[in-house]
Amino acid sequence: MVEEIAEGSWILLYIDRKRRKILRVSSKAKYSSDKGTIDLGGLIGSTYGVRVTTSIGAKAYIYKPTTCDLVYSVFSRPSQVIYPKDAGYAILMLDISPGKKILEIGVGSGVMTALIANLVRPEGRVYAYEIREDMAKIALENLRRIGMDRYVELKIRDAAQGVDEKDLDAAFIDIGDPWRVVDVVYNALKPGSPAAFFTPTFNQLLKLHTALIEHTGWGYIECVEILERPIELKENAVRPSTRMIAHTGFIVTAKKHLKDSSDKSIGD
Amino acid sequence: MVEEIAEGSWILLYIDRKRRKILRVSSKAKYSSDKGTIDLGGLIGSTYGVRVTTSIGAKAYIYKPTTCDLVYSVFSRPSQVIYPKDAGYAILMLDISPGKKILEIGVGSGVMTALIANLVRPEGRVYAYEIREDMAKIALENLRRIGMDRYVELKIRDAAQGVDEKDLDAAFIDIGDPWRVVDVVYNALKPGSPAAFFTPTFNQLLKLHTALIEHTGWGYIECVEILERPIELKENAVRPSTRMIAHTGFIVTAKKHLKDSSDKSIGD
Amino acid sequence: MVEEIAEGSWILLYIDRKRRKILRVSSKAKYSSDKGTIDLGGLIGSTYGVRVTTSIGAKAYIYKPTTCDLVYSVFSRPSQVIYPKDAGYAILMLDISPGKKILEIGVGSGVMTALIANLVRPEGRVYAYEIREDMAKIALENLRRIGMDRYVELKIRDAAQGVDEKDLDAAFIDIGDPWRVVDVVYNALKPGSPAAFFTPTFNQLLKLHTALIEHTGWGYIECVEILERPIELKENAVRPSTRMIAHTGFIVTAKKHLKDSSDKSIGD
Amino acid sequence: MVEEIAEGSWILLYIDRKRRKILRVSSKAKYSSDKGTIDLGGLIGSTYGVRVTTSIGAKAYIYKPTTCDLVYSVFSRPSQVIYPKDAGYAILMLDISPGKKILEIGVGSGVMTALIANLVRPEGRVYAYEIREDMAKIALENLRRIGMDRYVELKIRDAAQGVDEKDLDAAFIDIGDPWRVVDVVYNALKPGSPAAFFTPTFNQLLKLHTALIEHTGWGYIECVEILERPIELKENAVRPSTRMIAHTGFIVTAKKHLKDSSDKSIGD
After folding, report:
1. Is residue C263 part of a domain?
2. What predicted TM-score, i.e. pTM, was given to this entire model?
3. Which of A95, A128, B34, B130 is least surrounded by Cβ atoms within 10 Å, i.e. has the fewest?
């Protein structure tokens, strides 16, 4: 069934690459740019995908925003946020899927929190820890704006001091000193399950790697870097963009195994 | 609750980077490598994460495989398959999430089909079209092995001749001549919704781009290439790997808008 | 023997990454920044490598500029210029070396002209063609400033109409429509010798490739793209830079062979 | 003047991408592949660029090899060698040019030695240090084969114990523990002049960076990584190659300044 745009609906209004905006429809709201004005109230009752004309005759398209469109536009982002290239890869490595219970340490603006919540809902949960109260409040408000807060338990705490949950399905860690929580994450996870750590510098990577090795409860430790190269689609001049985001961080993945020295011996 | 390994459970057996294997547990099965033998039946009743010792004393860890672990190991893959770096990005761009109804054209071995099914289940569906009967059969058998077939409707057909569905939430297209299905995909999608096309060569990219422009029903057309750079985590010698997969394909995304010339005019 | 700084010497004055400048020393010149003033005349008679103190006590180092330091700082650059990553690779592929005679089509600001001249001098020559008179004048003035004009013959002409030289050792072509000069370059080169074409878009690359194939006088046709990833060397935070130049152009190399149908037949 | 192929000339024989070979012409030599045999003696007196036919009718082209063609084919290479992408960049950063005197530490197979020698000849020199006698002998033999040994002084020595030269124009260092020679390189260079260090791992990079900072005689310290992405030029299927060399090493550049505490004070 095709959805109608209603009071309070989010829309992605697109005039051209430089004039695109996520907006919330209300009967009285207008949108203005150098390409003219659009009466957003007039969209109520239309379907997504409709084309409208601005006050000065420019064409605009009204798309349905994806979760990514929303989190990267609507969210207040005082801190550095994860990019889709990294989030998408981590989501697959962690096997995020409906019903899963996920630990997140380092919420920041809540971008990854929202992306995970969107995939585990309605039964799953994100248990999200943020050390900074100001960031946690921003994240919570962000999640509320797009209705994702109901799938998230957000706690203001230094996760290095321990987390409340046990037997979680996966963990995503994005903090400056991830080596401090290696044991906490270990204790929160179901045995056999994965964690992903996101970390930007060579120095942090070396220190995290050492911590994972020395902990002895982690195996299958791998690291990748994901790069996104934008391609410019100009007519008769398709080419990689001149500039790109060259580095965000390294993604280190590992799986928890039991440390108990009472190994089973099942060789024949 | 911690899961126990049972008859028929999939496990990821990990000795070291070169000796890792996805296996199905049964009371009579054994696994042998140059590092010795393991009696898989002995794992029944254990939890994931357990450490076992092979017949010659090597240590092996038993992890719970992720969906990615499964599809890239268990699936027969006679054709080129999508990589997690590309799949994860496309999943976010298409807003794949629980309950969504997704069109897939070009199933191949079913890797992307499984990754999408895992995220839309249990209510959502993948409507998957494959022109080659032999590939479709392989894909279906692959999906069955990991229990994902119940979320997929697989049809053996040249999708360029039309698909049966309407008002789908998103579409993923991975075929050699994607320009042939631009209109079919358009007709199958809800207005305002996204499609992602995966295509390897410059020539195909230019041709697809032209087809999308000329169709006039697509907007917000973007293209990226995603690169995955593996980092070698050797003690005291952490470095990017010497070799990497340098190119898989370009991901072109676009959103459907209405072509109807009877535009609304809502400027004030 | 250690060189002394003299009237007219070029220096690279370096305070920190954001405050570095190529300057020409004269008895009356001063250099001022927010870090204070330096009397350049006071450097006359010093050696390169000296450390000086500005009027407000900041430290500055006086290095000897390399040819690259000079061309990327001193040259007026109204047009896009080649980067060292591409120039260095092309120089090796073309076997630029002392005494060689090199064809250049598309001089622009003269950056590549200068880099080649610096390597073929004093006996070699660059025969450089530029279609735009304004650019040619800028290039000539640029070359004069660093004393490289004496190794260059610069001609204002559309090279597609033919060049004056024959039996040149190599050719470098950096123009928007390189397919137009494929035959001209062919005629100017010694048989068996290399050409390198620099071209930014997929469309141009496909068109150039077709032109080289159809000409039938070119073989060993290869293409690469060179990427330079800057690494930030901050204490305890070494990492790839957040942003980089992601694309400049493709480098297509080919070698000339004789088209004469009277092949030698030397099989035994 | 067009060169003739003579007894002892190097040629690049090219049948197709998989059948190309650098060969030395002699009156009695033959070249055989699955595409037939060629009598190399029959080439004497021909010009480069000639097309010949093999015994079974395949076409082969005879190009003049570049220095790169030679060093990567003719040289025995028991050790990892530098790639053109890195060599070309370093050559520009070091301002290698005719007449310069260059320090090289870590000769290996002599690839970089040859590339530098080719650019500083006939007046310039490479002062090349190699700790391993076996490697030094291989390098010397390699250099002799292409006539570059006359521009090189090769010494078998641990350069960390000091080098014989002073006031050199630039230095290139490619050894596993470059921090050991930071002071030796410093003492060998003219003040104000550049050094380039090539190093593969994150660990080495961090250690080298620390050594350069702590030495206090180095400034303008920069680091880049150069990537070469091969593009496949197949008809109607141009695309980046599936695989590439993803990492060779980091290039760290720095310039020498005087450490003397008796700074000039030239502020006004």
Report:
1. no
2. 0.96
3. B34
